[in-house]
Amino acid sequence: MEKKEKLYEGKAKIVYATDEKDKVIVYFKDEATAFNAQKKDVIEGKGILNNKISSLFFQLLEKNNIPTHFIKQLSDREMLTYHVKIIPIEVVVRNIATGSIVKRLGISEKTEFNPPLIEFYLKNDALGDPIICYEHIIALNLTTDEDIKIIKDLALRVNKVLREFVEKANIILVDFKLEFGKKEDGTIVVADEISPDTCRFWDKETGERMDKDRFRLNLGDLTKYYEEVLKRIEK
After folding, report:
1. Which keywords belong to this entry (predicted)?
2. Assessment of whether the complete model's pTM goes beyond 0.85
3. Residue 117: CA atoms inside 13 Å, Cβ hemisphere, count?
């Protein structure tokens, strides 16, 4: 497998072409961003941890018959994935209220959602990734009604698998963001990454935040807690 030209660089990852047109290499950077990149820093080793954690979670989903873009981990910072066309929607699944939804709707912190709440956001940095509804998705022609049904079903399945898995590691899955892409044959798969950058994890016993909120809220020790997440899910 030969790494070729850079196809895309985002806030946390770089995507490279390979000599096989349906496969790409994803490189995880150490950059940390929050609040639509208004807050930035470089945290040494974060990319390595996110790559390893994402690889484990993608393998877990595949074992549970949830399709992903993941093929294999190549190195500490790189994974091989299928080349997919990203659907420009960020899907957030919420099990417990915290963060933006508390501010937007006046919901009490730590309110539990049963069933889990699904929200859609337009994937557009220039607009600040605004929250959107089903009608917006259809009106903007972001994807089809059938695709939305598949995405919602996959998101809830991912939630169930991840929530049960991390609970055994003494971690609460509070909420998380997913992105989806289409393979060349049209199959919708979970893409991007699944890591403490995109999930909120709380320690089940202490309530300590084990995710990017440590950066957002200036709590410190980000790599320490990412390392702890990796240690627990590797067991």
Report:
1. ATP-binding, Ligase, Nucleotide-binding, Purine biosynthesis
2. yes
3. 14
Written in H, E and C, the secondary structure of 115-140 is EEEEEEEECCHHHCCCEECHHHHHHC
Neighbours of 187 (CB within 10 A): 13
Among 88, 115, 111, CA closest to 181: 88
Rounded (10°) angle between helices 222-234 and 145-168: 90
**Could you tell me the CATH superfamily of domain 85-221?**
ATP-grasp fold, B domain (3.30.470.20)
For residue 113, how many other CB atoms are within 10 A of its CB? Answer: 15
Q: Which residues pair with 190 in a beta bridge?
A: 68, 180
- Confirm if 142 and 87 have CB atoms less than 8 A apart: yes
* Domain limits, the chain: 3-82, 85-221
Between β-strands 171-182 and 188-191, what pairing exists: parallel, antiparallel or unpaired?
antiparallel
Q: How does pLDDT run along the chain (235 residues), one tens digit per residue?
A: 899 999 999 999 999 999 999 999 999 999 999 887 778 999 999 999 999 999 999 999 999 999 999 999 999 999 999 999 999 999 999 999 999 999 999 999 999 999 999 999 999 989 999 999 999 999 999 999 999 999 999 999 999 999 999 999 999 999 999 999 999 999 999 999 999 999 999 999 999 999 999 999 999 999 999 999 999 999 7
Q: How far is CA 185 from CA 35, 66, 85, 181, 189, in A?
A: 35, 16, 11, 11, 11
